[in-house]
Design a protein that fits this description.
Helix content is 26%, strand content 30%. With 298 residues, the protein is an alpha+beta fold. The chain folds into two domains: 163 residues, Double-stranded beta-helix; 118 residues, Clavaminate synthase-like (Double-stranded beta-helix, 4-Layer Sandwich), CATH 3.60.130. The strands form four sheets. Strands 1, 2, 3, 4, 5, 6, 8, 17 and 19 form a nine-stranded mixed sheet that branches. Strands 7-18-9-16 form a four-stranded antiparallel sheet. It has a four-stranded antiparallel sheet with strand order 11-12-10-15. Bound molecules: fe (ii) ion (FE2).
Length: 298
């Protein structure tokens, strides 16, 4: 039986993303992998809807297309491990909005792919948001295109002893410093055992195909959380004028995912920024997995 003929593929947005809908009764594990890979590479985000996948099927499906799952060591947020699986994490530690960002772009080792799974959707709000970094770059003014190609950015941070021990899952300072250095961070230890660090990186990267440029970084999310959390590498400020241009583009081209139970979202973390809307429903339960792709990157 041709299962591909039984699914519907609809656009998620005008320029990027697809929704893969299951109008009949196709199992998520029976989908044609090559079709998924081709759609993912071409469109950056795939939302699988109507497959009635449980968490075990989500794990099996993501395992079949990905490799090198990460356990979020060094990660910024507090994330709970689900079902004793350190590569299956909750995203619900707090419920305020998170601005658009590339996942873990504050360090060298960031995942190529993200998977989200909706265990329980919120009654309202709490949409995950996605935005095409290629389109974002193309929407920038010529001035900002030039600026972000010429200047790198940096993320300065200071971690208390308790905080670096939590993030790096160790009490040993040498081990924590090594993990930072291996991830391209510059580190200075302070007398109170806190850790001052910064990471420099581009704000714009070549796309998988090398044919486009991708605006993907944490500027929008970091500026929203703490105005001092990101600067240009030369220490100049990413000023209000720049931030308001970025926010204006983001508000115009961001796409909201209104979760339904069992939804699976596959995100290209080399192309697509994500974030979320605030929510008040404490029952919202969305999981994330971070990994490399088990197929050729290009
Ligand atoms: Fe994220």
């Amino acid at each position: 039986m041709n299962l591909t003929a039984q699914i519907e593929v609809k656009p998620l947005a005008k320029e990027f993303g697809k929704i893969i809908i299951n109008p009949k009764d196709v199992g998520i594990l029976d989908l044609d992998k090559q079709l998924i890979i081709d759609l993912f590479k071409a469109y950056g985000v795939l939302l699988f809807r109507g497959f009635k996948a449980g968490c075990d099927q989500f794990l099996e499906f993501s395992n079949s297309l990905s490799t090198d799952f990460m356990d979020y060591t060094g990660g910024y947020l507090k994330r709970q491990v689900i079902n004793d699986n350190p590569t299956l994490l909750s995203v619900n530690d707090f419920n305020s909005a998170i601005g658009l960002h590339g996942e873990m772009y504050y360090q060298k080792q960031h995942p190529a792919m993200l998977w989200f799974y909706c265990d329980r959707p919120p009654v309202k709000d709490g949409q995950t948001i996605v935005c095409d970094g290629i389109q974002f770059y193309n929407e920038l003014s010529d001035t900002l295109k030039d600026l972000f190609q010429q200047k790198k950015i940096k993320y300065p941070s200071k971690l208390s002893k308790e905080e670096w021990q939590r993030r790096y899952k160790t009490e040993d300072i040498e081990t924590a410093i090594k993990m930072c250095v291996d991830n391209g961070l510059q580190v200075k230890m302070n007398q109170d055992e806190s850790m001052s660090r910064f990471y420099s990186c581009p704000a714009v990267y070549p796309s998988r195909s090398q044919e486009d440029l991708v605006f993907i970084n944490l500027i929008i999310a970091a500026k929203k959380a703490n105005p001092n959390a990101v600067r240009f590498e030369d220490d100049s400020e990413i000023n209000e004028e720049i931030v308001s241009e970025l926010n204006e583009i983001a508000s115009r081209i961001t796409v909201e995912i209104d979760w339904q139970k069992g939804d699976i979202l596959m995100v290209d973390n080399y192309r697509v920024m994500h974030g979320r809307r605030a929510f008040s429903d404490t029952q919202r339960n969305i999981y994330i997995r971070m990994c490399a792709s088990a197929f050729q990157a290009k």
